[in-house]
Amino acid sequence: MIKDNQKYFNRLHLVVDAIVIACSYMLAWYLKFEGPFANKAEGALTMGFYFQAMYFIVPGFVILYYAFRLYTPKRATRFEAEISNIFKANTTGLIAIMVVIYSFKIENFSRGLVAIFYALNIVLTILMRVLIRWILQFFRRKGYNLKHILLIGYSRAAEEYINRINGNPQWGYAVRGILDDRVPAGTVYRGVKVLGTIANLDYILPLSSLDEIAITLSLSDYGRLAEIVNACEKSGVHTKFIPDYNEVIPNRPYTEDINGLPVINIRYVPLTNTLSAFAKRLMDIIGSLCGLIVLSPVLLIVAILVKVTSKGPIIYKQERVGLHKKNFWMYKFRTMKVQTETAEKQCWTTKDDPRVTKIGKFLRKTSIDEFPQLWNILRGDMSIVGPRPERPQFVEKFREEIPRYMIKHQVRPGLTGWAQINGYRGDTSIRRRIDYDLYYIENWSMGFDFKIMFLTIFKGFVNENAY
After folding, report:
1. 44: pLDDT strictly greater than 80
2. Model confidence, pTM
3. Dist. CA 28–CA 31, nearest whole Å
4. DSSP alpha helices (H): ranges in 241-355?
5. β-bridge partners, 151
């Protein structure tokens, strides 16, 4: 039933998209040539000529939407990914239109109309998909259009899967039960019951109207994986595999094909891509230069205050561990009384630390003491956004105590980061901080960086945990 629903839904979705594309194009034409701000003198081409272009633009954009996976099921698809694909498809379409205009030398075809259409189509398509998602989620919460799933294997993966389904009723999943050879029948986890052993699969499949089977075997039972997959595929029911090694494999692993041999990479780091790394570095150079220029009056005033309120240098440098585990000198306004190197290495700052100066307490609370790191960013030691760097002695300590701690050194450390705007800075949980850092590393995008920079204005500067 779900398969039929999805088929009809995709057809309806395609028609809706075609209507949105056509309306965006017609509205763009109106705004360009007939709207209140239109230039009536323009429009050397007739309205009929412009509208005939829709015979190519509408189906062309629908094909692009299909190519950019905009008709995949939306149950657990991230909306951020859908928006990204809408931008990519429309940008590709914009380039294609411009190529056609210049290739066929259609000199009087309005470039302004194309630009307006590009912007309108993105906005209206996103709004329409927001509406569609809301409608689908509304009906799924009411218990309609559910996808019934059977889990094979009781494991941590099974429990995590059930937790996510129960926490997101709008996805429209209903777990009918679990089959497992180790856990006794009747055992219940979050409302989902163990129905029996895996051998019961041969009897359940012909009698049940299942939409999906999820194989959630524990690692110790992976020897039976091929046998269970064969049994499931004979039934014709869609089968998926949820691995029981989340602690080893990240949320978004990526695979390579080596002459037909699939290889799973343990960690996906988008910034290993040369183009992405270049774009981020360019943003860091521009951002740090602008920051140093705009904040120069503040930097001067703070430097004077630090100098006149306590003895010692204005700028304090401290060795930190950065990209590829290379040490660098990180600069800050001095906020503590001058102390020996041995005393400094003994511990980090705690609440009401007597070593902190009066002006230093204010600078730490507001994070103004971090502003000299704009110079570190310009030099290439750091980035505007990234995991905060740590001192070498603590890196050696945490690498042994906290799993995956060293992964943070696969990217440049940052002035601000995803962990910091979520409150994990200063004397807070290092384990939770690393969880946020790893999420940032594996899910990096330029948009994510801009989001963190924007939120830093409201959440990152003033923090109760900064001593």
Report:
1. no
2. 0.57
3. 5
4. 274-294, 296-309, 341-346
5. 178, 214
